[in-house]
């Protein structure tokens, strides 16, 4: 299995009202993309404010295997989510590792 972690930092064009739509789109990926075992996403509520660095949305996906992880990126449902980030994404951090 593979774990896929992503955290998003948005720019000044980001409207907080967009947050729930992004979150719902992320959560919907679980049923739309084959090979996903588990998926969670949420708004960053850490009390460690000194460690936030502007990252306000997080995603964790567990994939069946590395092939499923590789197929996820170009999948149309994932690409639709990526298009929602146009003009509002400042930075993203991605970590993938076998489990």
Automatic annotation (TrEMBL):
PROSITE patterns: S_R_A_B_BARREL
Protein's name according to its UniProt entry: Stress-response A/B barrel domain-containing protein
Domain of life the protein comes from: Bacteria
InterPro entries per the UniProt record, alphabetical: Dabb, Dimeric_a/b-barrel, HS1/DABB1-like
Gene3D superfamilies for this protein: 3.30.70.100
Subunit-level organization: Homodimer.
Domain Stress-response A/B barrel: 2-97
């Amino acid at each position: 299995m593979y774990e896929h972690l992503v955290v998003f930092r948005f720019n000044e064009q980001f409207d907080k009202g967009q947050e729930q739509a992004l979150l719902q789109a992320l959560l919907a990926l679980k049923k739309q993309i084959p090979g996903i075992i588990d998926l969670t996403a949420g708004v960053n509520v850490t009390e460690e404010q000194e460690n936030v660095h502007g990252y306000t949305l997080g995603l964790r996906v567990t994939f069946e295997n590395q092939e499923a992880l590789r197929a996820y990126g170009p999948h149309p449902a994932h690409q639709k989510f990526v298009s929602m980030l146009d003009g509002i994404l400042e930075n993203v951090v991605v970590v993938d590792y076998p489990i």
